[in-house]
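ARCHIVE CARD
Drawer: 12
Card no.: 0347
Subject: one protein chain, sequence and derived structure
Cross-reference: see card 0346
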Amino acid sequence: MNILLTGANNYLGQELVSFFLEKEYTVTCLIRSETLFYNTKKSEKNLATIQGDLIREKYSRNFPDDLDVAFYFSYYIAERGDIYQELELLSLQNYIKKARRVNCSHLIYVLPLRSPVIDEVKDLLEDSYIPYTIIRTSNIVGKNSLLMQIFKKMTSSMTIVSNTKLAESRCQPIALSDAIAYLDFISFNPAVFNQSFDIGGPEVLSYKEMLLEFMKLSKVKRTIITLPFVHTFFSTFWLSASGGIPKKIAGAFSKNIQGDLLCEDNKIHDLFPHTCLTFREAVLRAIS
């Protein structure tokens, strides 16, 4: 299978590249910096890169011909009225234009569960005349995934200060292996053409419940102080200052816990009745 992947700096994107290479697929990654890319990925015989910029439409070489699947991992939180939405739409528009020229058979648009699928994105995909699938993913639980990095940083402090949002907001964390299993099933599968799916784990847990389970499995004892109200700005500042988490990541996490992040539908299970790991099983695999 011939695969193009855009957004290889995304954690799930990186792991998907490794998975497809193990299956001996031909993988091409559209990247901005080859130096940064090869610092995390070894050179493989079935792995190629295109250095380029979708905004400015500058590429080191053409897209490979006769693509079976093109993965597009969204970088931006698509919020209506925000400049990032305009950049996302321009980037996707240019991506679709290139994909059509090389007879792409299936375009898979992947974004976080917290991000709404804006109407303009749907319109671009529908008007592309390329069979497409939109995938929204929940928090990934895997070695060095964002959620695991956040929890590791939080538990590096002797006292963890949280607000009621951390204690009450819920999500459906999914193991890395399960997320990859879903994406592998979806790839070049006519049963999922021109549809949208949410993928998440089998449990609905609050972030505090996950943090407590993470500490238990990591054999770390910390005091959690839950305050009735902590502003998002303070949460971002505290995570960044006390845990050494980059401000952008801390800000995204603080925004992530402002409400429930649950799958709106589970119709993917009707097509692919896959048994997912529990949060406990996923964490044990991630920290082993």
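Annotation on reverse: The domain at 2-137 is CATH 3.40.50.720 (Rossmann fold). The chain has a mean pLDDT of 84.
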